[in-house]
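Expect sequence, tokenised fold; for instance:
***
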Amino acid sequence: MSTTTTWHTIREASMFSGLPESTLRYYEQIGIIDAIARDPSSGHRMYSDADLESLSTISCLAATGMPLTDMREYLRNRFDGEDGARRQMELLDAQSLRLAAKMESLRIQQAYVSLKTLYWKAVSEGRDDDARRILNENQDIIDSVHSQSRRNGVGTTD
């Protein structure tokens, strides 16, 4: 059995994980990634195969939009047996709820874009009565988008 460790540069770690080099440095700085070994002669970061495995998980969590505090906790929980597994499920359930809310928000935004396309098509064809009807029949979607924009501090334009 070989105990030789294969080392990888930050560029290789970046390419493997899909995370920019600057993000890898930042994640190490804030404790998402454990301290990375340094080449004794150059001082450059050297990532082990185990580090790359960890980066794979981190990359996936980041891709879901998981908050950094939750990512940090998730990584700490990995080795805590059944208790850690329960905490992992709680973190993932919370992330699932955030993603569901985001999907609903996107669904409403898409519906708004579709209704506005129909509205402007009617206007461009001189069907002003149809245009007003489209807006009136879809006021709930318009109200939802306006509500989202107020919550997010973003204005909408017609």
Summary: The longest strand covers residues 45-48. The mean pLDDT is 93.
